[in-house]
Write a structure and sequence with these properties.
homotetramer, 361 residues, alpha+beta, Chorismate synthase, AroC fold, 5-stranded antiparallel sheet
Chain lengths: 361, 361, 361, 361
């Protein structure tokens, strides 16, 4: 219960701080007999890894993952899968100057108020480094989905807004062709300009990510509290720096009337259940259950609070001072949050698929 | 685990369909020795009850609640509190005509696809009637908060947008003076006009609700998955018709830079921990923990899917037809969702206060 | 988490005190489309009901159960099933004389120390009356098992020891032919004599119950903490007055060597998995998983602490006094615990069957 | 939910197989600011470690534990504590001959039937090697208890029966003076003789362990399902080879009458709550709550199923054969289960102390 795990049947529990000896996780609920090679997890981690373009932090994290249990002779055994990444790139000295100051927009202050101490080296447990384990778990979630869904399915996240710039088109195939995970090639230079501009101003910039999960069966989700949308909202809001979650039309739904927002049905022998939808304002979820339509979610990611500009703050002794973060930080944390959002969505869907199977397989 | 409860220590489990014999809930985690009278719960239920203005459904629900356990001689005993409301106003006949049709925007279709049958009378389990138990539970959550927080605190929700009309001011004292729970008296006639207009057009309209929780201690929330914002997101997204949740600046954060979004600190001997904040873009939550600032959340509520206009749909036999809901429905479900949002916020805060106490009381 | 529920997917949450307005429960996890009539639950409750022979309390509990939700047109809907029994036979006056005294062997004292107050009327929440809901839930557990296990299976509990008297034979068919749920007709008069003797001495007597669950598939249980035997131990130990739980040979295993205790295998084409066992010392569970053999458990039930003899005690004001319980009590609570043990076993097996199905259906 | 963790607030989740790369665990719920040095955990592990006398397996397990997270500058931080032990002594070859055979009394068969494959190297996940993490977690549980209980308390387990030989006296101080963890020095040579005899006969022998927890407050436990005795029963039954759990007089309670079994009260100003007990048949637990008296539990540990004698079995292809385990095995697994039982008891008590604090600190 104590906050370091999520999921019920497909369950992930993580540990580790950004500048401690290691981060790791235990993944439960993966069925036995699924082929698994460590390289599959490594590939996903490499996608999230920093230092791959000049739009993300230049911190070097090798993120080399080891599988410590749950796999024997190349297949899962049904027992918990232990994953470990040793931390390597400790520029803890970078943080010495902030050891006694609370960085605005960071977890520093509430951690200090709650726990009475804090690991000031790079955010400790609150660091986005923890999200590496989410990406690793996402690979196993995809394995679970693959094991049981026999028709094509796909979970894809993309960066759809940076600052006030937005995409105009969405093409899955474009997402891995640019370092921003942007589905619209024409938006890439506009996004890049906003990010470069922010960094030149010793500042940072916010972003919006959209997640599209297609090909999933109807009935995922458990009314009335573990609704699929509710569990997605929790999983996505638990990602560092996320301040908003929308399903389908989200906040825009306010501007629609009931008739405009209705996703009308029609008989369609080619559709999964013989029923077609004229639109998808609902984002594939009604009454907390998936409908079989694409599941659509969006998250707002705040600008990195670590900026090279001077900000007003106080010390632990309550004296006014200023702080200026000179470490190596992402000017737009929204970029590296894309694979994390994808992974969290996969974890939620895998968990609910197993939950559905318990009674309705 | 099966979806009908929420909370860990302060835990609510509900049952009941809109047109079955009764709805009810079990509330666990309320400490012993707290004075409790059934009238306190009744008062809160009456506030959510339909039929109180011409802006909500004219369905008569007496919503008379009984306490079945957990209270002895006017005080809680520490054992689970059982609450029951018998259903009375069964116009099930209204629903006969839709028994074989799936209403667009409703849970009808995914329930049918998942469970193979459905209680077509008014939504069954998916009906907003279930939210009466959330409001009842919210009263007990407030009791828990009162028991342990010795300084003034307050949880208030208000309707801040209907269709495209928005409030311009927020005054807690205004909220209970109008049937819309609107904190801006000047916005009330504008909101009323939009709602009346929608109903005249046999249509409905969406809304935005803001929740403000003030006076709460720092440190509520459990990193990294049971963050306070993550648990609020789940709790609020689990309310019927909600399609989006924001904390603090929410999606607007995208348009801010890191320096603009920073809530800078300054020494303030009058502030709870001696530390003042220059702004509250974060909505009172950093790193998943409350900071001591007001906790601010907003939710988007979709227009009622039940409209008196004709919509395209199919029957269970996959034949094209139309459906037109002639029952008594809210033209703006956002109104009655206000006390529900307040209650869900209280439940999340009560649960996290108890969780905090386990280790840090 | 707060202690009033058990099970993960098949989950039961109960409320209610012996002398409050009602007791009830919410049962989650029952799949949709299972035929269910309230009379099926009533029949099981009648079996546990007191006042049916002169070996149990003469308290009249009509125990008339109502289904409040989760069933529509005679079939389960997949939503939570709410059950309610109104309390009727309130001889609270019987308890007035003990309102200020702690009865030895009862929950009175620790409830008072923990909660600061107590419902002294008949045990309140600690009363065995709560077990009526367990028996009701057990019926639904049997429905779940029936839904998914296509070969014959059976869960039967019997009274195998009263005081120092033990059975010598076990015949399932005998159990419902005598008021003691005893599987050995020759032991019945011996058991009756011990019980009558205890009552005449204003005393009570302990008992042992054995539970046999036959026909269950291999693989039930989740290593290493939610082992089938561990979950059975918890479920059975949670029954009022139980002080010990054994699986298979239990404590007698201490007197065996490893070779004696080994349940050797042999090829047996007629056995479920083609493998026969030469013995069943293990009680059908190895490594926390069911093996396909009969699952055997035994529980020790203490003598009723409510006796008509005078016992030394203290008042809430810490003054020495005596207490003598003149209410209507079972001289051997072990008798009525038999259907409860059966029900709890059914609940554990149903939950683990659903858990197994999630990954291995 | 998937079985690899236990506890609610003080929660332990483990991973790892006996012959995989490592075993480890994540411990959640430890409050911040508690001094912790890795040597404290190592000392406890050394006590459980095999190869320390000729009564346990001669397998060399260095069991060198590392703390990977949750501790900074010698104090806990409130974040999850990750612990790791690399596996070193891989005599996997010993197991080659049994790779295709199911060992009677082992988890081999049900694991194979459930998961379709098995890690035959020494038991894999079902190996008692996993209990090293329980012992490590027990140290942290003791830290939690120490943090909040300000008066002396003590949790001690001892070996009280081997085969049919029993202790006659209990002296805490003797337990660590002999390799059998036996509290009666006069019983030690008798126990040793039984164990030596078993080994000489290529056999093994069962045992009984008693656990005594003194100095704990009243009120631990959550009625009616998470009773303290129920949670102890689950925790203890989840230890490898345990087949029975008793509280207080346990199965012997059957031979007592209600008046004999009553633990009468008397006014005692020197007792914790001013109330003395004339006896402790209840083992310190009434109604599922601790009473303040010593908490007493006993467990039956079966003889090691791995014996050097030839046993009848079948291969995975269902052919009759024999198996004879020539590896290095404990002739009496009950010995090394003593520190494990102590650790599990500490974990349950720490969890319930935190649970109590949530509402009643």
């Amino acid at each position: 219960m104590t906050g370091n795990g999520f999921g019920e049947i497909f369950r992930v529990t993580t540990f580790g701080e950004s500048h401690g000896p290691a981060i790791g996780c235990i993944v439960e609920g993966v069925p036995a007999q699924i082929p698994l090679d460590v390289s599959e997890i490594q590939t996903a981690l490499d996608r999230r890894r920093p230092g791959q373009s000049d739009f993300t932090t230049q911190r070097k994290e090798s993120d080399k993952v080891q599988i410590l249990s749950g796999v024997f002779n190349g297949r899962t055994t049904g027992t918990p899968i232990g994953l470990l990444i040793l931390n390597e790139d400790h520029h803890s000295a970078d943080y010495a100057q902030i050891a006694d100051k609370f960085r605005p927009g960071h977890a520093d202050l509430p951690y200090f108020l709650k726990y009475g101490n804090r690991d000031y080296r790079g955010g400790g447990r609150a660091s986005a480094r923890e999200t590496a384990m989410r990406v690793a778990a996402g690979v196993l979630a995809q394995k679970v989905l693959n094991r049981f869904i026999k028709t094509p399915f796909d979970i894809t996240a993309g960066l759809i807004q940076v600052g006030k710039e937005k995409i105009e088109t969405w093409d899955n195939a474009e997402i891995n062709k640019n370092p921003l995970f942007c589905p619209d090639p024409l938006a890439v230079p506009r996004f890049e300009k906003v990010i470069r501009n922010a960094r030149e101003n010793k500042d940072s910039v916010g972003a919006v990510i959209e997640i599209r999960a297609c090909g999933f069966p109807a009935g995922l989700g458990e009314p009335v509290y573990d609704r699929l949308d509710a569990d997605l909202a929790k999983a996505l809001m638990s990602i560092n720096a996320v301040k908003g979650v929308e399903i389908g039309d989200g906040f825009d739904v306010t501007g629609l009337t009931g008739t405009q927002n209705a996703d009308e049905f029609f008989a369609d022998p080619t559709a999964p259940n013989g029923i077609g939808f004229k639109s998808n304002h609902a984002g594939g979820i009604l009454g907390g259950l998936s409908t079989g339509q694409p599941i659509i979610a969006r998250i707002a990611v705040k600008p990195t609070p670590s900026v090279a500009s001077e900000l007003q703050t106080v010390t632990a002794e309550k004296e006014n001072t200023t702080v200026c973060t000179v470490g190596r930080h992402d000017p737009c944390v929204g970029i590296r949050a894309v694979p994390v959002a994808e992974a969290m969505t996969a974890c939620v869907l895998a968990d609910h698929l197993l939950r559905l199977r318990a009674q309705y397989a």
